[in-house]
Amino acid sequence: EAQVTQNPRYLITVTGKKLTVTCSQNMNHEYMSWYRQDPGLGLRQIYYSMNVEVTDKGDVPEGYKVSRKEKRNFPLILESPSPNQTSLYFCASSFLARGSTDTQYFGPGTRLTVL
Amino acid sequence: GQNIDQPTEMTATEGAIVQINCTYQTSGFNGLFWYQQHAGEAPTFLSYNVLDGLEEKGRFSSFLSRSKGYSYLLLKELQMKDSASYLCAWGDYKLSFGAGTTVTVRA
After folding, report:
1. What percent of chain B has pLDDT over 70?
2. How far is B98 from chain A (nearest CA, A)?
3. Residue A45 is nearest to which of B35, B44, B94, comparing CB atoms?
């Protein structure tokens, strides 16, 4: 089954404790992206990647890191989480269309709480 | 960044038609996406417009006017299951989403 998976689905942690949220897709997509979703603000892009070893900042990259060592995986790293990073996080992937992304497939989401 | 505006909430009756408008302020070659998101779930793709005009897909249609910075999503023959949030997104590889329009369908 074609899908985007994220782990963990739920996480409660404390300020400053490094964490990684994994994202994996099995559709051979070139493009992968991370978003956070907060009430009233909608989805905001954190980082995106157009292929292996190619990553770029979205609108809200501060406090986050990513890596793309393999095509299928795109982990999101919070080196020192803070309470303002409490949010719902989505990973997405797609093929690349001319000049844009194609249909993005979203993972199920990771609800993160930083105390 | 890019400013994308859409109404916060809309309510309609089962079987009716609802039009969700989206306006944006940006430039360059981009496309406009519409996604549907049910409460507690991930967004799912509805439509993508890169050229001006209307794209029809069953009960859902999407329109784009690039010169006016305007798009709309038209939902016809509304069903209860269409109650969801509808997200407008603009961009190329770097995407900006509107805050979403929550549509409530009433019997």
Report:
1. 94
2. 6
3. B94
